[in-house]
Design brief:
CATH architecture of the domain at 44-80 and 90-248: 3-Layer(aba) Sandwich
Strand order of the largest sheet: 4-3-2-6-9-10
Distance between the termini: 42 Å
CATH superfamily of the domain at 44-80 and 90-248: von Willebrand factor, type A domain
Strand content: 15-25%
Order of helices and strands: HHEEHEEHHEHEEHEHEHEHHH
Helix content: 25-40%
Radius of gyration: 18 Å
Shape: globular
Length: 299
């Protein structure tokens, strides 16, 4: 996988096929059975003539009941714009993007799904083949750490194996991360045998060996959102950003800015590369991110 290149014309043709009024449940065509098993499933981001220095990018998004608008935003706008920013401003070389749909491993039938790593319009075609279960347990968290487990144990990348360079992993959602991924959950979702339950911090540390890991919290303006954001900042200080649901149209710019900062650009440089109005909106979200000593731009 990872061959080909992403073009605006390919996106325009695909976008027109969605129509103008479709919602997430009409765009996403996956079934509960086609993506259910991850036993012995690995994903590879490999160098090839189209991507001679491939960089893996994993974008995991919450597909529980409250997050239908997020899937819709990614499919119709944000993912395309993020990829186009990456190609135009080149904070990384030869992006190969994998998307994963995240639910709740404690309650959902299909708590985790993945695409392949792709470099062309198949990024979005495969995204819309995922299944939106719309579950979640109302139990104080979702299973974002499934993406960390998968990145650590089920991905193979030339970026890391050949060059010892990290890829990018960004999860997005509106809830806390469950504190534990149990042995039973690991066996049910991945078919793997674990010796003991794994904590969120253990799973994060394992993913961080090969990836720069971030989380974007969606603030819906509800009671408790501040505490959720504080929990994320405690778990991964300097790697947790917050964006309001009302500003979800700027998600692409925030994704691009996080990748840019991870790859050594200053926050000022990342913000100058995007639309100024979007930069003004995401500046506060980007401010807590600390890869190095950086100063935020003033508008």
């Amino acid at each position: 996988m990872g061959q080909g290149s992403y073009t605006a014309s390919d996106w325009n043709r695909l976008r027109s096929s969605f129509g103008t009024e479709k919602k997430a449940e009409q765009i996403f065509k996956g079934s509960s059975t086609q993506n259910a098993s991850l036993k012995n499933v690995f994903r590879e981001a490999r160098d090839n003539p189209d991507s001679p220095q491939s960089t893996p990018v994993i974008i995991g998004f919450d597909v529980t009941t409250s997050m239908g608008f997020l899937a819709e935003e990614l499919a119709l706008r944000a993912l395309n714009r993020s990829v186009m920013y990456l190609y135009e401003h080149k904070p990384i070389t030869c992006p190969q993007v994998l998307c994963c749909a995240i639910g709740d491993s404690k309650t959902d039938k299909v708590p985790f799904q993945v695409t392949q790593f792709e470099s062309d319009i198949r990024i979005i075609k495969q995204l819309t083949a995922l299944y939106l279960e719309g579950g979640g347990g109302g139990n104080g968290g979702e299973s974002y750490h499934l993406a960390w487990y998968f990145a650590a144990h089920r991905t193979r990348t030339d970026c890391w194996e050949k060059r010892r360079q990290k890829g990018i992993l960004i999860t997005i959602g509106d809830d806390r991360c469950h504190r534990l991924l149990t042995r039973n959950e690991i066996a049910r979702v991945f078919g793997d045998t674990a010796e003991y339950d794994l904590s969120d911090s253990e799973l994060l540390a394992a993913a961080e060996e090969k990836y720069h890991v971030f989380h974007i919290s969606i603030d819906k303006g509800m009671p408790g959102d501040d505490r959720i954001s504080a929990d994320w900042n405690a778990l991964m200080p300097g790697r947790a950003a917050v964006i309001g649901k009302k500003n979800i149209a700027c998600l692409a710019e925030l994704i691009f800015a996080l990748i840019s900062v991870a790859e050594g650009r200053t926050q000022n440089e990342a913000l100058r590369a995007v639309d100024q109005r979007a930069a003004e909106i995401i500046a506060d979200a980007l401010a807590p991110i600390r890869m190095a000593d950086q100063n935020i731009i003033s508008f």
